[in-house]
Every structure is written in C-alpha cells, then in structure tokens.
Design goal:
Elements lengths: L1 E5 L6 E4 L7 H10 L17 E5 L14 E4 H7 L4 H7 L1 H4 L13 E4 L2 E2 L14 E7 L15 E6 L3 E13 L6 E11 L3 E12 L2 E2 L18 E3 L1 E15 L4 E20 L6 E21 L2 E19 L6 E24 L2 E20 L6 E19 L7 E13 L3 E13 L4 E12 L3 H5 L3 E10 L4 E9 L8 E13 L6 E17 L5 H6 L4 E3 L5 E5 L3 E20 L35 H12 L14 H6 L9 H12 L1 H18 L10 H6 L9 H12 L5 H4 L11 H4 L10 E17 L6 E3 L14 E11 L2 E10 L2 E3 L10 E3 L2 E11 H5 L9 E8 L8 E2 L11 H4 L5 E9 L1
Parallel strand pairs: 1-3, 5-8, 25-29
Antiparallel strand pairs: 1-2, 4-7, 5-6, 7-8, 9-10, 9-40, 10-11, 11-14, 12-13, 14-15, 15-16, 16-17, 17-18, 18-19, 19-20, 20-21, 21-22, 22-23, 23-26, 24-25, 26-27, 27-30, 28-29, 30-31, 31-32, 31-33, 33-34, 34-37, 35-36, 36-39, 37-38, 38-40
Helix pairs in contact: 9-10
Keywords: Cell outer membrane, Membrane
Protein name: TonB-dependent receptor
InterPro entries: Beta-barrel_TonB_sf (IPR036942), Plug_dom_sf (IPR037066)
Length: 912
C-alpha cells in the first residue's frame, strides 16, 4: 500500500493511493509521465513497507463526464511564442471556435480561470503565457454547467499557483510594399501568490494612414482623388488595465476585481468635396471605461458565483459635408451593466452518479444615447433584462456498462426585457460515451433573442464617396453608404439541432478528432446587409439612384429577415506531442538522489516538492471516520488529488472506492500506521533529529556512498516532512524568465529528453445550406448560389490551421486560412454582371528565439529575452474577383480589397 502526500496549491495532506503494493519506481515513472513533480527516493518509508510519496496536481482542472476537445500544457504553450493569454487564445482558435451554429456562429468562447467563471475576458487577457500551467477546451454543452447557453465552447485556463514577472514588449510592423506602419509598446506586471494575484498592464498602439494613391489605384469617375481617399485609416490608442484577485482559505471565498480605461482615435479620407477644393475627412474619438468583479462563495454543499461587468463607451464622430458647407457630428454614449449569479451543486445521488444542477439569476441594464446633427431630435433607448434559469445534468448509465455511459442535460430559462417583453429559451441534450475514447452528443436548442440596442439605436452616419461595384451596370462608382441603427427591428426565434462526435485516436497519442453537424432555422432575423443585386431586389427602397440609373446611396442599416436556414458540417483535428523516440530515463542514482530528473547528489534543490501538515491529515481522516456508515463523506474537504481518485468515470463519487478509503483510514491498521508515521515525523523533525528512532529502511535511504548520513538527503527529507509550507508553488519558477523550471521539467522530468515539441490544430467547415426567405410565400434567396442579402460572397468551404514546433529555445508557429471560391449574382437586369470570387489560401509564419534558453543564460539581459520575426500572408496572396467578362472591376482590384498583403514585423520581449 502506498501513501501519497499531496502539495496541491492550497491543501497538502497524506492519502492512501492504492489497495495493493506498487513498486516505488513504477509510481515515480507514472507521476513523471503525467507532468507531476514527485519524489520517491527521499520519501519516508514505514516499517511495514508503506511509502509516502510527495507530488503535485494542477488545481483548477475541470472534472466532468465530457472529455476535452483539446488540452495544452506548459510546454505546448511555450511553443506558441505568445506574448499574453490573449495571444494563446488566438493560437488555438481552430479549437475554440464554435462552427456548428450555422450562419450565426458562436463567437468568443466562455472563459474560466481555475474552473471559476470570470466577469470578462479583460480579467486575464494581458497575463503572460508563462503564468499558465494548462489550457483545456470543452464542447459547447459544458457551458450550461456554468450558467451559459450552449452556443459557445468553454476554455478553462489553469494558472500556476506561484508566479511573478514583469514583461516589456515593443513591436514594429509594416507591409512589404510599405505605405504605412504600426507600432505597439506594452508593459505587464503580474504576481500570483498564495493568497491571490495582482496585475497591471499598459499598452500603446499607433498606425499610420494609407491612401489609394500609395497603391496606384484610381476610380474612372474621379481620377484625381486617389491621394485624398484612404484605404487604411490613421489610428492611435492607449489602454490601461488593473486586475486583482484574492482567495480566503478560512471561508472559501474568492474575489476578483478589474478596471480598464481605453482611448482610441481614427482619421480617414473620403475624397474631395463637390467643388473639388476641400478634402473630406471623418474623425472619431472613443473613450471606454470598464469595471468587473467576481465573487465565489461555498454555501453548504453548493457553490455560488457572482459576476458583474460594467462598461461606458463614449464616441464622437465628425464627418465633412460633401458640399463643403461644414461638418456633421454623431455622438453616442453606451452604458451597460451585466450581473449574474449562479448556484451549482450535486443534490441527488443517482445509481450512475451525482445529478448536478446550476441555477442562474441575472440582471442587465443597457442604455444608448445618440444624437446627430442631421436629425431633428436625440435618441435615447433603455433596456433592462431580468433572466433566470436552471441547468440539469443527469447521469443515466455509468461508464463501463454494456453500452457505455449516458448523460442527459437540460437547461431552460426566461428573459424579461423592458422593451421586448418576455423571451424564453430551452435546450435538451444527450451525451453518450460508448467507449472511454469516443463521445457522441446531440442537442436541441430553442430560444428567443432580441436585437441589441446598437442595432436599434446607433446614430445614422453617412459616409460619402465610398467605392462600390454596381451590379446593375457592371461599373465601379462612388456612392454614399448609410450606417446606423433601426428602431423597427423584431425579436428573433432560433431553432437549432447540433450533433457532435469526439474521438481520442487510439493509435496517436494526444490526438483527437472532432466532428459537428448543425441545422439552424431562425425567424425574424436581424441582418446587417451589404450591397448586392439580391439586396436591391429584396429591398429596393434601400437603394437610391438618379433618373439615369446612376447609383447614389445605399442604406445598410440593420433589417429584419423573415427566415434563414443553414446547415454546416465541421471537422476538427487536434494533436500535440514530441518528435522522435523518447530517450531512456537515467538509471537510479544517475539523475541525483536516485530520482529521474532530480538534482545531482550534493546539489541543493530549488525548493521542496511538497510539505506535510498533520492537522490537515487529521482533518481528512475525520471526514471519513466521523461520517456515518452508508452516507457519502463531504469530499470537498479533502485534497483534490485524492478526491479525484474517489470518483467514477463520470466524475461522481464511487461508493466502493469511498468504502475502501474509509477502511484504510479508520481501521485498526490505519490507526497503528498513523501512530508510526507520527513517531517517525517527530524523530525526523526534532532538532537535532533522532535518527536512531527512524525505521531502518528510511535510515538506509539517508545514507551516502560512504555509508554515513548524507546531509543533503537529510535536509531534503526534513523539508518534506517537517514543513506545511512549500508545495507546488515552491517548485515552480517565480519569474517569467524561464518557462516553469526548464525544458526537462516540461518534457516529463527526464533531463535527457530534448526532443522537439509540436502542436497541430486543423479545422475544416463545409456550408451545406444558407438560404433567406423574405416572406412565408417567398421569394427564396440561395446565398450559396450568389443571391446574398447580408455580408459578402459566401463560400462553401473554409479551413483554419494552427501549428508549431519548439526546440531548445527556438520556435516556429504557422497559421493558415483557406476560403473556397464563391459567386455574387448580378440579377436579370440588362447589363448586370455576376462577380466570381476565386479561392484564397494565406499563411502566416512566426519565428522566435528565447535567447536565455538558447544561451543557457542564468542571469543578465539575455535571460527572459525573446526576439520574434513575423511574416503574415507570406506568399502575398490576394483573392481575385472577376466579372462575367473575366475582367477585374475597379472596386475589386486586388490592392483595394487587400491593401496590406505580405506583412512583416519584429517583436522584442523581455521578462524580468
């Protein structure tokens, strides 16, 4: 029998791991392979052969019945070459994107920090990637367990428990053709300690103007205005952010606070005025203020989490009038406050496991104030929303049965909106795991959605002299484009089906294949249209022409579509690992103190891998021994690593395992063992230690080659046995200069393992159907066939790739995007022209070198210094658009639709 003492971030304690004796070497290799920090050789040994093993486990990982779509550990994250958690999320976008929600999409995923909801992405986006121990990505259905709707994937970010770093970064980027440039400077400080974390971040960004003349572009109807029309606007911005989080161990309460201020300004050129003298400009200034808070609190057997996120955005836009008679102004203020309370627990124990329930209650308030000099009155809109709902996950069949594990989940809720009345939503799903490596799920989603206040009430803005292709005449013209809100929008009803399969490949380690199929039907859909022949046919009042048919203006404000239909099939493949055959581990004694990856004999360790707290050990014994027979002990009071061993395949308490643990903890043999262990600890921790009172086998482990007690081994044993401190936090590097204690730790603790590490994420989406029905009796527009109402041409095929390799301080990341060919129909009017879009594949490469790792620098400026070179769109690819004659219209010149092309940059980052 083996006893394990866990130093898992907050709750060290000793626990019994297995029923049968297991060789210490086997345990050691298993732990090292899993990335845990272990020590067996220096562990105390009792007279009866029991061994106390010290190890660590990542606290904050999710333990649920559904397997993750992808997992990334510390070494994988190092291979991204990222500068922040925001960059890490961008690197795994093929995995986090929700691709089975049809034309709607799922948007940004739901984020958790250490398994806990956060108020907003702002709370952690600027954290350096060195602070991350692991990233887990889960399917959309998991979002229900945290009070979210099942249309966004869940990303759980597990942070290191002890970390500190100051990072500074400067970037310079520009297209290979020149014309404009972009610079960015950022400084971030983060401290993660035993009681909480504190973060400050400041970021400055500036981008210069690019005109049509700098790309050699002209418009036939205005040949002399190219230098007065911008392709890319001049922008500048600053952002300041502060984040604070604190955990209170005595009450279990957690608190996090966030505050952000951002200022952004932009300037664009719209050509010359009607008299040909004045340059028309549009200028915008935007200030945003944000604050967020999260509070977590255990309430009996339940966990309550409250989040609040408040935002104020003020925007001031000035537009020069085309007749040069002055300027028009558009002012807007947007206020928003979102409050959510969730209560999660496991109130009922079913034969297949515990039933989990989440109750959520929320109150949101939004206000939009806008005024426009071209409008007679200002617009003010308010919306308050009270929402409440419940989510239930019920295990029907436990894993390991004849047909595998089956779970059923349901969530339902009501939204009471002040301006739209009562809206309802519900979804029902089933999750089946016929084997340990295969997971299948089906979900039915129904919900009512109100249009956003911005779609309803944004100020009307008229942008003159925009380059537009007129499908009716086949010519490129300059027209006025109208944007803003539409107060006449209606509420949307969504009815979706989603089917998923997640297979962990048995022949490829750390590789998963994901498939999703979505069927979406929606009524009264809010759409942001773009100009096309189908749009003009459907909404002729939105297009203004002069008596000769010349296009003058297009109104692209949101509108309501009667019905949309879509079907999407998506495939995802994710893998990570190391290249080549693993080297053999050092023989016992070669790695120092007989532990693979351990320090050489005589060298001092950087910190104790674990500690032991007898008070916590006794408290854990009481959990089992004071709980009446037949009742389930309160597992929340024991260390997480031991708790995980008491769960079944569905993540629920296993009665047989609990009974076995109770017998080991509370029987007569357990009492005797505890007494012997206490005597051994007392002998070792007395100053000076009473070595003669130690068990013979333990004294042998403390001997050096000369047969005498080795002082370093004795010191290490005392650090483990006599301190309730230390643990995981001490064994991890506190600064951002090195990645978690070096590559040997990353690669499983074997110092001989210097193999390159790789990761690969590939997603491919096939759009099978995308249709718009304008009324119950028609007409029907097939957007895949080119009759597009909203947005540009729609491709049937699209792909996204993220891959990388990292080896001894050098790294490369490859990003790829593919969009298939598509068409926009020009209609049946004489002279009309179709547009044909070719397919497009672009690749971005990022090369980087961690100079401290490369040079093995332990101090000085090279330590923590990384230099990165980026080349986006390496092959300078641009999508080719032609009309029915095979010609490229002026509005779709390759340098007009993509004025940037190949984009080069350098990034220098220093971690102090």
């Amino acid at each position: 029998m083996i006893a394990l003492t866990v130093a898992a971030s907050a709750q060290p304690g000793a626990l019994l791991a297995q029923d049968a004796p297991v060789p210490a070497q086997d345990v050691e290799e298993q732990q090292a392979d899993s990335g845990q920090d272990v020590s067996v050789v220096d562990a105390p040994v009792l007279d009866d052969g029991d061994i106390v093993v010290f190890g660590t486990r990542l606290k904050g990982q999710l333990t649920i019945d559904q397997p993750p779509l992808a997992e990334y550990d510390e070494a994988d994250i190092a291979a991204f070459g990222a500068s922040s958690i925001a960059d890490v999320i961008a690197s795994i976008e093929p995995t986090t994107g929700s691709n089975a929600r049809g034309s709607r999409g799922g948007g940004r995923p739901v984020f958790l920090i250490n398994g806990i909801r956060v108020s907003s992405f702002r709370e952690f986006r600027s954290y350096p990637p060195e602070a991350v121990a692991k990233v887990e990505v889960f399917d959309e259905e998991v979002a229900q367990r945290f009070g979210y709707s099942p249309d966004q994937r869940v990303v759980n970010i597990v942070l290191k428990p002890n970390f500190q770093a100051l990072t500074a970064e400067v970037e310079y980027e520009q297209p290979s053709r020149g014309g404009y440039s972009r610079t960015e400077q950022e400084a971030t400080w983060l401290r993660i300690g035993e009681k909480g974390r504190l973060n400050f971040d400041i970021e400055l960004e500036d981008r210069s103007l690019l005109t049509e003349a700098e790309r050699g572009l002209t418009i036939a109807t205005a040949p002399g205005e190219a230098e007065f029309r911008s392709l890319i606007s001049d922008t500048a911005g600053v952002q300041v952010e502060a984040n604070y989080a604190r955990a209170y161990a005595d009450t279990g309460t957690s608190l996090s606070l966030n505050g952000t201020f951002a200022h952004n300004q932009s300037r664009s050129l719209n050509g010359l005025s009607l008299d040909g003298i004045s340059v028309l400009e549009t200028e915008s200034d935007t200030d945003s203020y944000s604050a967020g808070a999260t509070i977590g609190q255990p309430i009996g057997d339940w966990t309550a989490t409250f989040t609040s996120d408040a935002n104020l955005t003020k925007s001031d836009t000035t537009i020069d009038r085309a007749d040069a008679s002055g300027i028009d102004t558009a002012l807007s203020k947007t206020y928003s406050v979102a409050n959510d309370l969730t209560l999660t627990g496991y109130p009922i124990q079913l034969p297949a496991g515990d039933l989990s329930m989440t109750f959520d209650l929320g109150f949101d308030w939004n206000r939009l104030e806008s005024e426009d000099s071209r409008s007679a009155s200002a617009l003010e809109l308010d919306r308050s929303r009270l929402n409440y709902g419940v989510s239930i996950n019920a295990p029907v069949l436990a894993r390991g049965g004849p047909i595998g594990g089956v779970n059923v989940n349901f969530s339902g809720g009501v939204d009471d909106l002040s301006d739209f009345g009562t809206l309802a939503n519900w979804n029902l799903g089933v999750n089946w795991s016929p084997t340990e490596k295969l997971n299948l799920s089906a979900t039915r989603i129904w919900r009512e959605v109100a249009p956003g206040l911005a779609s309803l009430g944004s100020p009307q803005i008229e942008s003159p002299n925009r380059t537009v292709f007129d499908f009716t005449t086949g010519e490129t013209v300059l027209a006025t484009v109208i944007s803003g809100g539409n107060p006449n929008l209606r509420g949307e009803t969504q009815t979706d089906w989603k089917f998923s399969a997640n297979w962990q490949l048995p022949f490829w380690e750390n590789a998963r294949l994901q498939a999703d199929y979505g069927i979406n039907r929606s009524r009264d859909v809010t759409s942001n249209p773009s100009f096309s022949a189908a749009f003009e046919e459907a909404f002729p009042d939105r297009v203004t022409r002069d008596p000769t048919g010349q296009l003058l203006a297009i109104d692209t404000r949101p509108l309501t579509l009667f019905q949309t239909r879509s079907r999407i099939l998506s495939f995802g493949f994710n893998t990570r690992g190391q290249i080549g055959k693993a080297p053999e581990r050092p023989e016992r004694g070669e790695g120092g103190q007989g532990r693979p990856g351990g320090p050489p004999s005589g060298e001092r360790r950087s910190g104790p891998p674990g500690g032991f707290d007898p008070a916590r050990m006794e408290a854990m014994r009481k959990v089992f021994c004071e709980t009446p027979e037949g009742e389930t002990p309160d597992l929340s009071k024991i260390p997480e690593m031991f708790r995980a061993r008491l769960l079944d395949g569905d993540g629920n308490p296993d009665p047989e395992k609990i009974a076995a643990a109770r017998e080991r903890f509370c029987g007569e043999e357990a009492d005797e063992r505890a007494k012997r262990f206490a005597a051994m600890r007392e002998a070792l921790c007395t100053d000076p230690p009473k070595l003669d009172a130690l068990p013979e086998r333990m004294r042998e482990r403390l001997l050096g080659e000369d047969g005498e007690i080795d002082p370093e081994k004795l010191k290490a044993a005392r650090e483990r046995m006599c301190s309730a401190e230390g643990g995981e936090g001490e064994s991890q590097n506190r600064t951002g200069g090195r990645r978690g204690g070096g590559m040997a730790r990353m690669f499983g603790g074997n110092p001989n393992d210097t193999r390159p590490r790789y990761f690969l994420s590939l997603n491919h989406t096939v759009t099978l159907e995308n249709e718009v029905l304008l009324s119950e009796g028609g007409p029907l527009f097939d957007q895949l066939d080119g009759f597009v109402i909203g947005g540009g041409a729609i491709s049937e095929q699209s792909s996204r790739l993220e891959a990388g390799v990292f080896w001894q301080g050098y790294g490369m990341r490859l990003s790829g995007r593919y969009v298939g060919d598509a068409v926009l129909r020009g209609g049946d009017v004489a002279g009309a022209s179709d547009l044909f879009y070719g397919d497009l594949a672009t690749f971005d490469i990022r090369l980087f070198a961690d100079l401290g790792e490369v040079t093995k620098a332990e101090d000085g400026w090279l330590k923590g210094l990384r230099v990165s070179l980026l080349a986006n769109n390496v092959f300078d690819a641009r999508r080719r658009v032609t009309d029915g004659n095979g010609d490229v219209p002026d509005a779709f010149q390759p340098l007009r639709i993509d004025p940037t092309g190949r984009y080069l940059g350098i990034d220098i980052r220093k971690a102090f």
